[in-house]
Write a structure and sequence with these properties.
0% strand; 4 helices; mainly alpha; single chain
């Protein structure tokens, strides 16, 4: 969705094309996608636990980073794509 919004903001198709190519190449080059996904999940758990010394925990960090932050970014992109006035020069 972000790639579609970026294309709309920039009036291009290159983000969709590059994103699609990266997805297809990744799916073709990763021999065991299940193992790869499990490894990425484990790495994301480690990353979220980095915030524990700052008074957070895994659940709080995951809500902020995996839910709230993407919602804010999506809102900003939607605003720029659909509600910004065109720059008239």
């Amino acid at each position: 969705m972000w790639l579609l919004l970026l294309d709309k903001i920039k009036s291009t198709h290159k983000f969709k094309i590059i994103g699609s190519i990266l997805i297809v190449v990744s799916l073709l080059l990763i021999p065991n996608f299940n193992s790869f996904s499990n490894q990425l999940f484990s790495m994301s758990q480690d990353f979220l636990n980095v915030f524990n010394p700052l008074g957070s925990n895994y659940v709080k960090s995951s809500v902020i980073i995996c839910a709230a932050l993407p919602l804010v970014i999506t809102g900003i992109l939607i605003k720029k794509a659909y509600f910004n006035k065109p720059n008239l020069k």
